[in-house]
Each structure stands twice: as C-alpha cells, then as structure tokens.
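Sequence design from tokenized structure. All designs in this work follow the same two-part layout: the structure record, then the generated sequence. An example of the structure record is given first.
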C-alpha cells in the first residue's frame, strides 16, 4: 500500500512531466552523472580551477531539484575518483573543503526535501572532517525516501571490483556456482538498481573508471555543456533524449517499438 505522501508526490511528478513533455512512466529510476568540465569553465573566465568547482555546486543543486521534480529515485554523482588524488594538493584540499562546507550548508534543506544522502567509494582515505560530516549526513537522512543522492567519493570501478573479488574469495561460494548476482551483491551499489541513464558533461566521451559493471545497459548521454552550466533544462533534455531511445537489451524491437517475446 502506498502512503498518501507518496501518492501526492506521484501526482506532482506526473504534472511536472506533463508540463515538460516527458512521459512520467518512463523516467529513469537511476541517473548517474560524471560531472566534468569545472576546470575548463574556470579557465574560460581566467579563474582558478577551484572557482570552477565552487560554481559546480550550483549544478549539483539544479540536478537534485530536477530529479526530485521528475520522480527519479536514485541520482549518483561522480564527485571524486581514485585517480583524482593525482591532482595538485591545493586543488584536492579545496575539493575536500568544498565537500564539507556544502554538506554543512545543504544537509538540512536536502532533508526537508526528503533526500537521503548515501556514498560509494573508499571514504577511509578522506580527511577526518569529511568522513565525519558524511556520516552525520548519511545517518540524519537515512529514513528519507524521495530521492537517494549517492555521492561517489574516492570511487573507481576497478577499486570496487577488486573489493568485490576479495569478498567473494573469502566467502564460501563455490567458484563454479558464482553468478552475476553474487558479484553485484558485493559491489558498493548492492542495494541500488543499475543506472538507466548516464550523463557526462564537458564533451568528453569516456567512462573514466565509473560504474563499469552497473552501466552495462545504461543509455549514455554526452553533452558539451560544462558542469557549472548544467541546468535543470539540460537535465530534462537528457531525460527527453533517453525517452527517445530504443532499449533492446540484446533482443529485437517489433514495428510497434515493443520488445518481442521469446517463442
Ligand atoms: C570535474 O571537473 C570535477 C572533478 C573531477 C572533481 P574537472 O576538474 O575534471 O574539470 P576539467 O575536466 O579539468 O575541465
Ligand atoms: C572524472 O572526471 C571523475 C569525476 C568527475 C569525479 P576526470 O576529469 O577526472 O576524468 P578524465 O581524467 O578526464 O578522464
Ligand atoms: Mg575533468
């Protein structure tokens, strides 16, 4: 049984989708974003890269709002990769500081909107104050259900797969019985459905070690827009594009654009 708040939310999503020309029944359940282009955005303005990251927070806010409006259930943002440690210490420190100040500033309003904050990645390598703020935000929002905002921090897909393999090697599963579900259960996304749509900003056409397993059948959307310029309209546009894709999952589509059934 769905509660009245959920039903009210659903009718609001329907209204929003209708006004944007989107099909409310085909909103991706999970959207993952590689937020890229902050440095180039700053460079275009003769500013430091950190200036770009600071402005990138506006795009995070817009994406969260747009996801809430459309009824997306999970939004994953790739915020810091295991490879990003190779950047100058000044930039890395500024990114960590920005994470803490943004969390402190925004967590209450996220909570008011029903946003649950979650993380994937090896948090143990982050500065202690980051870990602490993340823990507080995760604990404080753990019962909220409008949207899961999943921050990928010190995350990479290869790291995650190696961790999963270590767990599986310690488990009592007989290798000959190992299934894809066993692997998925040992990934950091084990309670989260795979993304149906992956967006990357800034005109780069690569995955950069992000959710290699989970993106197996995701629709990929690349836009030249630099992350700080990514607005709610850009977000809606990516969903509109997604709704025009034929998702075949290895099958074939009949003339009515419905999937053919076996037999
Ligand atoms: C994305 O923007 C933010 C992070 C990776 C943390 P970049 O900092 O990669 O910006 P560009 O790609 O150099 O323009
Ligand atoms: C990917 O962006 C990582 C994040 C958005 C956190 P990068 O800017 O680090 O990726 P590359 O180096 O261009 O592949
Ligand atoms: Mg980049």
């Amino acid at each position: 049984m769905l509660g009245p708040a959920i039903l009210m939310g659903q009718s609001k999503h329907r209204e929003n989708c209708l006004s944007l020309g989107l099909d409310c029944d085909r909103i991706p359940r999970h959207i993952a974003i590689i937020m890229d282009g902050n440095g180039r955005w700053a460079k275009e303005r003769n500013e430091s890269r950190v200036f770009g990251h600071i402005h990138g927070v506006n795009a995070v806010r817009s994406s969260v709002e747009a996801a809430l409006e459309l009824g997306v259930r999970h939004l994953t943002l790739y915020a810091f990769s295991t490879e990003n440690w190779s950047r100058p210490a000044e930039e890395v420190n500024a990114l960590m500081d920005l994470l803490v100040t943004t969390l402190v500033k925004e967590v209450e309003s996220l909570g008011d909107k029903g946003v649950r904050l979650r993380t994937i990645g090896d948090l143990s390598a982050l500065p202690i104050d980051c870990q602490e703020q993340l823990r507080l935000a995760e604990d404080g929002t753990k019962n909220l259900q409008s949207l899961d905002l999943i921050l990928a921090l010190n995350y990479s897909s290869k790291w995650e797969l190696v961790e999963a393999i270590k767990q599986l090697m310690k488990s009592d599963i007989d290798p000959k019985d190992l299934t894809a579900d066993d692997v998925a259960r040992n990934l950091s996304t084990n309670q989260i459905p795979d993304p149906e749509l992956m967006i990357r900003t800034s005109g780069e056409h690569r995955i950069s070690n992000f959710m290699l397993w989970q993106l197996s059948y995701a629709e990929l959307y690349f836009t030249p827009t630099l992350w700080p310029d990514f607005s709610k309209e850009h977000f809606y546009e990516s969903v509109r594009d997604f709704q025009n894709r034929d998702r075949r999952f290895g099958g074939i589509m009949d003339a009515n654009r419905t999937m053919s059934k076996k037999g």
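The pocket of IPE (ligand 1) is lined by residues 35-40, 49, 80, 84, 95, 202, 227 (CB under 6 Å). We note this feature because it recurs in several other targets discussed in the main text.
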